[in-house]
What we know:
Elements: E1 13-16, E2 23-24, E3 26-27, E4 34-37, E5 40-43, E6 58-61
Antiparallel strand pairs: 1-2, 1-6, 3-4, 4-5
Amino acid sequence: MVNLRIRLYDGALVEVQGLRGPLRAVQCPHDPTHFEISGFLYDAGGRAALPRTRAPKILMVYSMGCQLLKTA
C-alpha cells in the first residue's frame, strides 16, 4: 500500500471530510506556513494548525492543473 502525503499550496482545491467541496485553500498572509480552508486552519501537511483544534480531515488535494468550474 502506498502512503501519499498531503501537501497544501495557495489556491489548492481540496476535499474535506463532512464538507461539500471542492474547497479552496488560502495561504494566511500573516503566517505563510498556515492555510485556511472553510474557516479552519491547517499546516502545509494538512494537519490542524492549532493544537486541540477539531478541524475536519483533508481527504485529498486535487492536482495543480485542476480548476474549479462551477459549484452547486
